[in-house]
Design brief:
Alpha-Beta Plaits, about 25% helix
Length: about 250
């Protein structure tokens, strides 16, 4: 029976070259497709898993959404259990559901939540070291929140796009940037309708520059107006970023 399936996937992106399939590199999409190929004894070229987005190399996800059309007689739970049996320990399929023929994980998504984690306390935590970025300076999160206010809303985020050859519109809506501190950790949570390549990591790197006192919060206005990647802050390391949720 040919059926469109919706998958919810969690993964530690540390050792992968991002979501999207790449020749000669291990990717999340590639690992998932290899297991499905084995499960149904079909060629990888005969189907495609479509993700809600393309996380960069080293970026993690708590709930990436994907869809795939398969000719399969297994139940959704049987598909989930088979995949988890053969996937590596750093990828898990949390849920498999039957979806409508029209469901498309990428095109139907109306929002995404990302969280960036860093640590500026005195003693670095050991056991979650792969999921946060350790900082040498203490961040001024009050100034960062002021800067975040300027960055929130509907803007042209070209200055925050890592793809200099981007031809399509770089206008996006970021309706929430929340910055909180808990026991030495600083969490930056972003929610928006969609994000450009490297956009969240560049936003984080820019907000950190404000937190270090190297940029004033008001400078965010100039960065947005410049539409020039060179005037924004650095791209923050990938390992601190996690896709938390996709909205439909």
């Amino acid at each position: 029976m040919i059926q469109n399936y919706k998958l919810k996937i969690s993964y530690d992106g540390t050792r992968y070259y991002g979501w999207e399939h790449q020749p000669d590199h291990e990717t999340i999409q590639g690992k998932l497709e290899n297991v499905i190929s084995r499960m149904l004894d079909i060629a990888v070229e005969d189907f495609k898993i479509i993700g809600a987005g393309r996380t960069d190399a080293g970026v993690h996800a708590k709930a990436m959404i994907a869809n795939v059309v398969l000719d399969c007689n297994m139940s959704p739970d049987e598909i989930r259990d088979y995949m988890n049996r053969y996937l590596p320990d750093d990828i898990a399929v949390l849920e498999v559901r039957r979806a409508s023929d029209r469901f498309h994980a990428r095109y139907n998504a109306v929002g995404k939540t990302y969280r960036y984690t860093c640590f500026d306390g005195p003693v670095k935590p050991v056991f979650d070291r792969k999921y946060y970025v350790a900082l040498d300076e203490v961040l001024d999160i009050d100034k960062m929140r002021q800067a975040a206010d300027y960055l929130t809303g509907k803007h042209d985020y070209k200055s925050f796009c890592g793809n200099s050859r981007m031809k399509k519109s770089t206008v996006r809506v970021v309706d929430k940037i929340e910055i909180v501190r808990r026991k030495g950790y600083v969490y930056m949570t972003f929610h928006g309708t969609g994000f450009l390549q490297n956009m969240v990591r560049i936003l984080v790197g820019t907000l950190m520059e404000v937190g270090y006192g190297r940029m004033e919060p008001e400078y965010m206005i100039d960065i947005l107006e410049a539409k020039d990647r060179k005037v924004a802050g650095p791209t923050a390391p990938a390992k601190g970023l996690c896709l938390i949720e996709v909205d439909y």
